[in-house]
Design a protein that fits this description.
The complex is a heterodimer of chains A (168) and B (249). Chain A has 168 residues and is mainly alpha-helical. Chain A contains 2 helices and no strands. The longest helix of chain A has 134 residues. The mean pLDDT of chain A is 89. Chain B has a two-stranded antiparallel sheet. Chain B is an all-alpha fold and 249 residues long. Helix content of chain B is 67%, strand content 2%. Chain B has one domain. Classes of the chains: A mainly alpha (168), B mainly alpha (249).
Chain lengths: 168, 249
């Protein structure tokens, strides 16, 4: 094989080392620092962006939780207010009903008493008027004067009969 | 008369130079090394000078390569391995450009010279030995004893491990050389068959050369990668004595 011809070894070794050293120097001085720094810068930027995104995300989550808690609290408060209002309305209604019932009872009682009273008065009036009327009639019919006691006696008898018929 | 498939690997003195008794004549392979250095340097310097946060095409390619080598070093050697980044990255680029430029018809594949790959592998292995002894002192000889070896096995294990250690630079050099040589030999043989076969049947080997050529482009990348990652592993082994599992060759 031509590659094993040792005649060229020395020149190949020499020039390989020289070429490699030159390339190493040039790249080390002019290429690698720039490329590596750009890579690192980009990595840092990406990492920073990710970190920032993560921060924003957690903040958003925290805010969401805060709002949810607030919302819950508001809902509870509203429920409380509603319940209190309902209770109060119920109580008012019951009170009103009670008061109305009592008032109605009172009015009814008053009316009954008045009616009773009026009835008694009417009966008394009728009785008195009837007595006078009967006396007058009796006087006319009998044409004679009776003493006061007789009058009363007849009158009471007549009244008794009248009231009996009235009651029937 | 048919050309030998090994003909493309032959070298001829172009400019005879002698330095202190050593022959450092310029030949085709030497010129190709210069071309490789020039192309790699120009490419990387131009691509690296565009330091945009959102990279263009050229910058992307350069950054892809640099990031590829960087993550390779970080994976195998850890953070302290970044000291060797310039050396390893240059090695990768040098080998890659040699492999790729060698695929251009009429050019020369520098890495198909066993002496070239041997120098690289000896340098790499030498660095790993020097680093190992610098970091661990005489304890670095413990690399010859895998952890958990019972005492009575030592007379057997030490020679075996010694052989596996010595096989490292040899396999590293031979792998790259053999892959590059074999690819070009296959291409040469197929081209020879295509030409001697004529139009009637020659199209078949010619079709194969197209496929093999594509394969060779892949192999150019893969072999550069393998050489580089083994470099990382060997130097990394010097850092972390028994810290990593031995990588398969």
């Amino acid at each position: 094989m031509p590659q094993f011809e040792s005649h060229f070894f020395s020149s190949l070794i020499f020039w390989e080392i020289v070429s490699f050293a030159i390339l190493l120097f040039v790249l080390y001085k002019f290429a690698f620092p720039g490329i590596l720094s750009v890579l690192e810068e980009r990595e840092k930027k990406i990492k920073d962006s990710l970190d920032q995104a993560e921060r924003h995300r957690s903040e958003a989550e925290r805010k969401l939780m805060e709002y949810e808690a607030k919302l819950n609290m508001a809902a509870k408060e509203a429920e409380g207010v509603l319940n209190a209002a309902k209770e109060r309305a119920q109580r008012l209604m019951e009170e009103n009903e009670q008061r109305m019932t009592i008032e109605a009872e009172r009015i009814k009682g008053d009316a009954t008493r008045e009616i009773d009273h009026e009835r008694r008065k009417a009966i008394q009036d009728i009785r008195a008027q009837t007595t006078d009327l009967v006396l007058m009639v009796a006087e006319k019919v009998v044409q004679r004067s009776l003493n006061e006691a007789d009058h009363r006696k007849f009158a009471d008898e007549a009244l008794e009969a009248l009231s009996k018929s009235y009651q029937r | 008369m048919e050309e030998s498939p090994l003909h493309p690997f032959e070298l001829h003195e172009w400019i005879p130079i002698s330095l202190g008794g050593f022959d450092i004549s310029v030949n085709k392979a030497v010129v190709m090394m210069w071309v490789v250095v020039a192309l790699a340097a120009v490419f990387m310097v131009i691509a690296g000078s565009a330091r945009k946060l959102v990279p263009g095409k050229l910058q992307s390619i350069a950054e892809l390569m640099v990031d590829f080598i960087r993550s390779m070093i970080l994976d195998t050697m850890g953070k302290e391995g970044m000291r060797f980044f310039p050396l390893i990255a240059t090695l990768f680029l040098f080998i890659l450009f040699c492999n790729l430029i060698g695929l251009i018809p009429g050019s020369y594949t520098v890495t198909s010279q066993i002496i070239v790959t041997a120098v690289f592998s000896c340098v790499v292995y030498g660095i790993s030995l020097v680093m190992g002894f610098l970091i661990h002192g005489i304890k670095f000889l413990g690399i010859l004893v895998p952890p958990g070896t019972p005492g009575w096995l030592l007379p057997l294990m030490i020679p075996i491990e010694l052989m596996s250690q010595l096989a490292r630079p040899i396999s590293l050099a031979v792998r790259l050389f053999a892959n590059m040589t074999a690819g070009h030999v296959i291409l040469g043989v197929l081209f020879g068959m295509a030409i001697s076969g004529g139009l009637l049947i020659g199209w078949l080997p010619f079709a194969f050369t197209v496929a093999i050529y594509g394969l060779e482009v892949g192999i150019a990348f893969i072999q550069a990668y393998i050489f580089t990652i083994l470099t990382c592993v060997y130097i990394g082994d010097a850092f972390h004595l028994h810290g990593h599992d031995k990588h398969a060759h």
